[in-house]
Amino acid sequence: MDSGLAALLGAAIGSVATLGAAMVNGRSQARSQHAQQSRRHRRDAYARYLGALHDRDLAMDAVLAALRADHPDQAVVDELTDRFVALAREVHRCCEAVILEGPASVAAVAERVTNASADLSYVMRRMAEDARAGDTTRRSEDSALATERERARAAIGRTA
Question: How many Å apart are CA 66 and CA 157, to the nearest integer?
């Protein structure tokens, strides 16, 4: 074989091998970047959800504390309840992102935590309605139920 032809053939084979290695490396790098971006989106969704849940739970605790007073100030209760409702909506929006971004196991835990807090918020809303109406017949029962639901909510948060 002619030495010039051998050199040309060697250069062509070397170029094809280099191009193939670059393609494999490029694909691997693209997959790595995609995985890193997915983790970042997931982490951000989790952080927003946990922050919103924390803020909503603090607002709920403030409403419950105001309702447990001997004579709840209805204007304060209404203001705290409005804040709670706005924060509860934010939790639902953030939970949707967790469901979209996370694996099914994380979505299931987020739904359990959301449902436990929803049970407590139902009791809180009923207590607020009764306070507005001046109805004290269920007050001790609702206070005990709220305490039980707070414990259940905290237990789910610890096991999640």
Answer: 24
